[in-house]
Amino acid sequence: MIRKEVFKLFWVIGICCIMTVECSQCPESKSGMLNVHLVSHTHDDVGWLKTVDQYYYGANNTIQRAGVQYILDSVVQALLENPNRKFIYVESAFFYRWWNQQTSEMQQTVKNLVSSGQLEFIGGGWCMNDEAASHYNAIIDQMSLGLMKLNATFGDSARPRIAWQIDPFGHSREQASLFAQMGFDGLFFGRLDYDDKRNRWKNQQMEMIWQASQNLGEASWLFTGALPNGYGPPQGFCFDILCDDAPIMDDPKLHDYNVDQKVSDFLSAAHEEAKGYATSDIIMTMGMDFHYQNAHVWFKNLDKLIRYVNQEQGKGSNVNIFYSTPSCYLDALHAAGKTWPTKQDDFFPYASDHHAFWTGYFTSRPTLKGYIRTTNSFLQAVKQLSAMAGFGYDDRLEELKEAMAVAQHHDAVSGTAQQHVTNDYSLRLSEGVDKGFDQMNDAFREIANGSSASPKLDFFFCPLLNVSSCPQTENSDSFVVSLYNPLARPRNKFVRLPVPPNYGYKVIDHQGNSVTAQLVPLPESLENIPGRSGSTSLFDLVFLAVDIPPLGTVQYHISRTTNSRIIRQQLSKLKVPKNGEDFIISHERVTLTLDGSSPNMMKIQTQGETDIKKRVINQEFVYYEGMVGNNSKEEFRASGAYIFRPDGNDPKPLGNKLKIKSLSGPVLTEIQQVWSPWVSQVVRIYDGTPKLEMEWLVGPIPISDTIGKEVVNRVTLEDMDTHDTFLTDANGRELLARVKDHRSTWHLNNTEPVSGNYYPVNSRLILKSANSDFKFAVMTDRSQGGTSLNSGQAELMIHRRLLHDDAFGVGEPLNETQFGEGLVVRGKHHLLLSDFSTPACDFGCLHRSLGEELMLEPVISIAPTSMDHATWRETQKTLWSGLSAPLPSSIHLLTLEPLNVNMLLLRLEHMYEQGESEKHSDPVKLDLKNLLSWWEIVKMHETTLSGNQWKEDESRLKWKVEKTNDNHIRRETNYAHNSDRDFVITLNPMEIKTFIITVEKKSV
């Protein structure tokens, strides 16, 4: 096993600096003056037009002249030249590449600059993550990765206080809540809807207190400011070598002397900006994308600007300008003692003009979005297993963590990078998964392979199970299947393994019992996916794995047989309906009928305890034609990677010649549908599961007609009145109400009736009847764009292929290909009806528990073996759990991660909102001392959410607010938990608690 020096955590314990003016060495604002805080910064995309490596080194400059290493080299030298200069840096992914290449002398120089306040870290995550398509689990991970490294390098004095989301294309309420829980004092962002900005500017409400959780109260409140110029300087004051603005030419002997004009222009810009803000302190961002590669140019001109503008004070000017940072600016605002307006909703969707709604990226590059989601699940499993096996720091785990963190960048998971960069993101994930599986295998051997004399099983990971391809199951006469469950509660899983024809299979569980299995023929459209020709599988072998233990593994022994009786028993029974004949499938409480005269019409009948509920659902795949345009004016905007702009408000049908057949057996019944040559679907009801599964396959989207297409899955419930309201999740956590053609903070004149009503759907879209208690949810397996344009209707966009760029920078159409053909996407939607509820699990329980299961799927690994099942059971540890007991059903183990050999990072989460579930929304008390099976917790110390500050040291700024929403509680923050004796904690709805725990091996 590859080992490195144990990752060290440096905790600055003592008097905590609350970042007052004296403490943070901020310049002092002058009373009675307009104080302008100049913030020198660079925005360094962790991949976009170039790969992260190319951006760091400055390679491939034919695409974009950008080299981050030169920025940091240059800025450090410029700061040393003048102690008044200040600079902020954001992206830890780039900083640590640079830091690790520096001499110890240069590292000490940088530490001195940080200590003096000249160099300040802002944001501090591994990247500046997207806020629409990122899952909260991945957001927390990427922020923690960067912040904990900064803490380990510089101590608490470098801890960022300001969240800096200047480039993401819309802003999530959950993101703000997470920032607040990480201990940030404020958030600044650059992109604000053009209509919202006009309204806020007029009312001097560009800054506010964001009440970011209706469950957590003041612990989620965050000062939030929209920057005045996006994140660039005022017009005429871009002094970078990449800019064309004139420098300050201050030699009066020269013909182009311009000091007077520059000073006049700046004073005008400052007074104009002040009109939109509520105090006598304003902020100006002096930098843009990859600026300061020659920092001397910027700083020399800013030195002059400060000198000449401030000289005007002697002539009666009231403008005072100086080098500053966002934290200094925030302290000045706090010192003003103002009462601030509040906000309770979010900043989606973002529009930059009447016809540019940035809602296409909610779906762009759906295979990358799906890959990132499954890799996140895999990462959590590797971290858990590494912790339970007693591993400390390991390069392999670190590589996987960094690959996942880079993938959260706002041009990565968003799907808005160039194709070659997208390929690089995928490659990094693939390499990280390979390293992670190697470490997982080591952990399995450490934990679960029985005695040292046992035959060792070599497990393999099958990354192409999503297209029913796995060499180990296709080519082995017998093999062992291991399922690792990363949830903290037992779960069941219907396992699907690709196998070749002409065989039956004996499936034996860990107790030696035969397990019922079914052979299901693959849909023809799946067999014909481009690039799948190397697979020999024509069937999926399906069986139910029962009670996979929490943070544990169960194994199954599977062997081929040519026994004709077994083959006949396992083969699915095929039925093709006659014209007009209804199709009926049922399992236990649920019966699904497909109308023979209208195959996209489904009737669902649910047997309750006292009655039968009947619903009629119309499900169809349709597509919007992407708008064509040259982008020369607003009205000529094309649909592209960022922008969703359909040509017309009504989508096109795929036709009504739906081909259909059913396959039934002892494990499941499924209906295979072919909607068109490039759209197909499988509808499944598994025995004993309260959901309807729709597995769709879309592509290659045809473009021979030169028309781009944006495909949606539309589900409509008959006679359901929802009053134009629906719910979407925020990054997989809290739900927000959405109202068609409505914004909470201004009157909307919706110039794009379809795309202007699209919102990010990270995990679920929910409809509630206005006339009854009936609810309906569509659960997703990746981030998508969604809406409800008609009452009782849910619409989710699942694939896009476009032929024109939208002119927002990426510079190429969203036209993904694979193996020389258009990209094919395979994914799932899960339908939940409140009719499926039981006394033990109401609708809140249904969608929360399923959401947790979809986020953290079991990790399936395969070990070919010559052992028979008896030998396998005698020699292998076929069932184990890393927990002493399952956690309560409302508690989610969010993080279990090794920091060193006997120190772990632990996060526990209450995954229900207040009042969401009658039985699951109450506070929960837990005793954690014996949480783990093999490790005893001997000490636990609570930290902020990001793990980079002790909870008792947290001291966030308090703000006066104009009003509070009655639905927002004012819960007092719980005391920090720091104990080597008392291990009992309480979790309230939607609360996450983070601990550094010290463990010792339990005596056997």
UniProtKB/TrEMBL annotation:
**Cofactor(s) the record lists:** Zn(2+)
Catalysed reactions, semicolon-separated: Hydrolysis of terminal, non-reducing alpha-D-mannose residues in alpha-D-mannosides
A GO molecular-function annotation: alpha-mannosidase activity
Any idea where the Glycoside hydrolase family 38 central domain is? 356-429
Record's keyword terms, sorted: Disulfide bond, Glycoprotein, Glycosidase, Hydrolase, Metal-binding, Signal, Zinc
- Pfam families linked: Alpha-mann_mid (PF09261), Glyco_hydro38C2 (PF17677), Glyco_hydro_38C (PF07748), Glyco_hydro_38N (PF01074)
Task: Report the top EC class in one word.
Answer: hydrolase
Question: Sorted alphabetically, which CDD domains does this protein's record hold?
Answer: GH38N_AMII_LAM_like
The protein's matches in SUPFAM superfamilies, at most eight in alphabetical order, are given as:
Families 57/38 glycoside transferase middle domain, Galactose mutarotase-like, Glycoside hydrolase/deacetylase
List the GO terms this entry assigns under cellular component, sorted alphabetically.
lysosome
**EC annotation?**
3.2.1.-
Signal peptide residues on this chain, from the entry's feature table: 1-23
**What biological-process GO terms show up in the record?**
mannose metabolic process
Q: Does the keyword Membrane apply?
A: no
Question: What does the entry's cofactor note say about binding and number?
Answer: Binds 1 zinc ion per subunit.
Family membership, please give it.
Belongs to the glycosyl hydrolase 38 family.
Quote the protein name from its UniProt record.
Alpha-mannosidase
